[in-house]
């Protein structure tokens, strides 16, 4: 998990809060900024602490999840993990709008997976998409909603991969390979089709789609190309100068999601890359 995450944990179940607090405390670079048992406390905590992620029970005694989002304001909302029970209406609303949620009861790994998904959504493109979907959900607008899961099939079964679990995608003709944390899936969809559906979530680099948060380094090669290094060690080569500029702009956008110390380090790295680039082209 890159960067650091401040969390507001909201549930009126003290036992559940203790359990989730223990899981969050066990994660590196995660800090629980506040624990809340009511909707009013949750609104105050989010406005005071400006957390990275809110873990939010959708049915608190005084306010439901939608009421909390409405009071905070969509543009001030961080990313979310909604905790819900088997309530058909609420489940259908969350599913329709692609909101990150968990159905109780859930196990520890299911919670941590949903939390990691929320952390990935803190990059600017993804966070803007989360806020748009929350706005449509509050307005009851279904026109812009789209599926946030991709069906994948093998010889024995079918399953869904959540869009926010995908780190990068490589295209191969009529097929694309989805790269997740610990596995890959091949789907029958062209990269152009996936780009059209998920342009808000990924940068297009030739025959790949990449989350800006997955880019570890970008540098100009002796031949005038750009070499992009991903956090998993893979390398992508960009052959056109405009492509270099677009990717560099994507890296600049990422600065807004880190702590002040991390932002300073990234700004220093970007400045050094620009200096090297300028020297090479003088």
What can you tell me about this protein's structure?
With 282 residues, this protein is α/β, with parallel strands linked by helices. The chain has 3 domains: 135 residues, Response regulator (Rossmann fold, 3-Layer(aba) Sandwich); 58 residues, LytTr DNA-binding domain (OB fold (Dihydrolipoamide Acetyltransferase, E2P), Beta Barrel); 72 residues, no CATH class. It has 9 helices and 15 strands. A 5-stranded parallel beta sheet has the order 2-1-3-4-5, with helices on both faces. A hairpin with a 2-residue loop joins β11 and β12. The longest helix has 22 residues. The radius of gyration is 20 Å and the shape is globular. About 7% of the residues have low confidence.
Oligomer: single chain
Order of helices and strands: EHEHEHEHEHHEEEEEHEEEEEHH
Helix content: 40-55%
Estimate nothing, just give the exact number of structural domains.
3
**Largest sheet composition:** 5 strands, parallel
If you compute it from the alpha carbons, what radius of gyration comes out, rounded to the nearest whole angstrom?
Answer: 20 Å
Number of helices: 9
E-strand count: 15
Spatial separation of the terminal alpha carbons: 38 Å
Task: Supply the CATH architecture of the largest domain.
Answer: 3-Layer(aba) Sandwich
Low-confidence stretches: 240-260
CATH superfamily of the largest domain: Response regulator
Instruction: Output the CATH class name of the largest domain.
Output: Alpha Beta
Beta-strand fraction estimate? 25-35%
Question: Largest beta sheet: what is the strand line-up?
Answer: 2-1-3-4-5
User: How would you classify the helix and strand content by structural class?
Assistant: alpha/beta
Overall average pLDDT: 77
Shape: globular
Q: What would the CATH topology of the largest domain be?
A: Rossmann fold
């Amino acid at each position: 998990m890159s960067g650091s995450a401040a969390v507001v944990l909201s549930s009126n179940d003290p036992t559940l809060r203790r359990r989730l607090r223990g899981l969050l405390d066990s994660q590196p670079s995660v800090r629980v900024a506040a624990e809340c048992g009511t909707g009013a406390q949750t609104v105050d905590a989010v406005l005071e602490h400006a957390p990275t992620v809110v873990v939010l029970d959708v049915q608190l005694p005084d306010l439901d999840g939608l009421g909390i989002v409405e009071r905070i304001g969509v543009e001030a909302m961080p990313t979310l993990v909604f905790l819900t029970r088997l309530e058909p209406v609420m489940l259908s609303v969350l599913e329709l709008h692609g909101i990150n949620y968990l159905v109780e009861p859930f196990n520890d790994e299911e919670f941590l997976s949903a939390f990691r998904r929320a952390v990935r959504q803190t990059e600017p493109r993804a966070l803007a998409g989360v806020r748009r979907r929350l706005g449509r959900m509050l307005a009851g607008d279904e026109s812009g909603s789209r599926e946030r899961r991709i069906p994948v099939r093998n010889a024995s079964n079918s399953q869904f991969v959540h869009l926010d679990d995908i780190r990068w995608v490589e295209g191969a003709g009529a097929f694309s390979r989805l790269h997740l944390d610990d596995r890959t899936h091949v789907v029958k969809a062209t990269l152009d089709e996936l780009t059209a559906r998920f342009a808000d979530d990924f940068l297009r680099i030739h025959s790949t789609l990449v989350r800006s948060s997955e880019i570890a380094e970008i540098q100009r090669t002796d031949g005038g190309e750009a070499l992009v290094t991903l956090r998993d060690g893979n390398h992508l080569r960009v052959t056109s100068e405009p492509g270099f500029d677009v990717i560099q702009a994507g890296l600049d956008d990422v600065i807004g999601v880190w702590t002040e110390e991390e932002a300073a380090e990234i700004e220093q790295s970007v400045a050094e890359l620009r200096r090297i680039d300028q020297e090479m082209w003088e």
